[in-house]
Every structure is written in structure tokens, then in C-alpha cells.
Amino acid sequence: MSFPDITPDLAARMPKLRGRMIANQAMAELTWFRAGGVAQVLFTPADEEDLSYFLAHLDGAHDVTVVGVGSNLIVRDGGVKGVVIRLSPRGFGQARKVAPDQIEAGAAALDKRVAETAADAGIGGLEFYFGIPGSIGGALRMNAGANGGETKDVLAFASGVRRDGELVVYSNEEMGFAYRKSSAPADVIFTSAVFRGKRDDAAIIRERMAAVQEHREKAQPIREKTGGSTFKNPPGHSAWKIIDAAGCRGLRVGGAMMSEMHCNFLINTGDATAADIENLGEEVRRRVKEHSGIELEWEIKRIGEAASPSRAPN
Fold first, then answer.
1. Each residue of 79-121: pLDDT tens digit?
2. Are residues 106 and 174 in the same domain?
3. What CATH number is attached to the domain comprising 298?
């Protein structure tokens, strides 16, 4: 399905806009699951100033949704109404050393690139980002972590733009980090952050990064169309263990499957719809609750409207 084209009206309201607007952009092209509907408008701002200008002039009646590189995202088949904002690597993908123990990164910078930049600068403590398939904007929003490290451990401060266009800065404490989430206002679009590590030998840092990559290669289906870890670890439990115990390893709905390699990973085996993927996740949640009494919480973000009828698990 498609939505009415509102880009001419938006352009008329924003004559100084420098970013790019696309009507009815297929979001399947921009997500790692390679499934889902369209965005009514996809806006890619030129830089932070352009983003601020856009938001300040955008009618409050229009919904705003922010996406990153699409690695941890299900876009439902009915698409996303309103404006989807996606920060580009050109405008927001920088990563550079700004102090002996600090790295500045744009919100569109890949987590992996930030880890590599820190290693080149001899700054340790950010190696865990090497194993996270996402960008810094998402890491700030969900307190991304892996291999014993989390964003809350290394963030100095984060900058962003509010829905009204005002520029804001948050300290680590003001982010309100908890397990896989932050309590920063939902309407803030993060644009950059500064991270603080510790001075270390670059070769040793690289060894730790190589160990992270080796673990991912052996334990996770990183070559598949997947969104990474599907569910958060419940307190005192590993999500994959209770999913496995509930008999969900290899479970399928349509073209979606719980990975045989790591059963906390959802996979599009080729022709899965977004409904297949989400419905499989919900079926796993149901079976885990029935088996163990534990209610799994989604780690993957889901946006948009449903469109397709459900298919039964097999």
C-alpha cells in the first residue's frame, strides 16, 4: 500500500530545507530483515542545523519516527504514516578522537566504526561496540551493550534535537540508562555523542576486538537477514536458554524462523513478511510464558501499521 504524497506541502513550508524527502519509500530496502512496508515520507537531513529547521517547521499533526541503519527494526507491512527520519553517514557518520581518552561520534556512525576509531587512537573500553550491528543513535536510545560492556559505561554526553527543533545536550546521568533502555525524552533525536575510554595499547585493544568478532562468527547467524538479539534477557536468565527450553529453536512462521544456531535470533529465510517475523516472535513469547512463566520483552523495535493476515507457526 502507499500513502498520500505530502512532500510538496512540506517543501512549500520549508523553502530553506537542504535535506532530501522521498514519498512512499520502501523500508524493506533499508532494514536488515528486508521486509516491511513504505514510509509516507522519508527525510534525510543534511546536518544537525537542517534537522532542527525541519522539525521547527513541521506541523505537529505529523507523526515522526526515527530509524537508524535498520539492524534492530521491524517495519510492519502496512507502512509508517507521517515522517520517518533517517540520519545519513554523510551528515552524521563522523567518528574522531577529540581528547586523549575521548571519541566523538555522529549518531549515524556504525558502532563498529566507533570501536575501530577508538582502537586506532589507543583508547580502550569501547571494544564491545565492535560486536554490535547498529549505529550510535540506537546505542544511545537503548543503552546498547555486548560482551560485558554497555553504553552507560562509556558515554560522557549526548547531543540531539527536540521535536520543536531545539538543540539539547544530556549528561550520562541525565540519560537515565537502565538495561537496554534510557529514559531520555522520546521526542529527542540524538545527533552525536562523546565517549570516554581509557588509554591502552592499540595492539591489545585489537586483540580484544578480534575475540569479540570470533565469538560472533561462531555463535551468531550474522550472515543471515536478521535483526540481532530479538528479546532482552529476563533478570537472572538468558533469553536463548528459555527459548530453547520451550522448544522454539527452528520454529517457523511463513518465511520467518528462529535460528538453529542462536535461538534468540529471528531470521528472514527469504520470503518472510514483516507480519511473519513479528508473529513468530509473539508465538515464541507465548510458548515461553506457557512453559516457564517468564514473559519475554522485545529488544527489536517494531514500527508502523499491520497489513497482512497472520500465518500459523510450523
1. 999 999 999 999 999 999 999 999 999 999 999 999 999 999 9
2. yes
3. 3.90.78.10
192 carries an active-site annotation: no
Radius of gyration of the chain, Cα coordinates, nearest whole angstrom? 20
Rounded-to-integer distance, Cα 37 and Cα 32, Å: 14
pTM across the whole model: 0.93
- Domain around 192: 91-205
- Does residue 96 share a domain with residue 83? no
| 99: three-class secondary structure by DSSP | strand
Q: 71, 182, 229, 259: which one is catalytic?
A: 229
Residue with cell 523500508: 27
Q: Is 225 helix (H, G, I), strand (E, B) or coil?
A: strand
List, for residues 223-238, the tens digit of each pLDDT value: 899 998 999 999 999 9
**Gap between the Cα atoms of 155 and 258, Å rounded:** 33
Please identify which of the residues 162, 180, 206, 208 carries the catalytic annotation.
180
Average pLDDT over residues 48-66: 97
* Annotation says 229 is catalytic: yes
For residue 271, tell me if it sits in a domain: yes
Boundary (domain end) residue, out of 90, 117, 134: 90
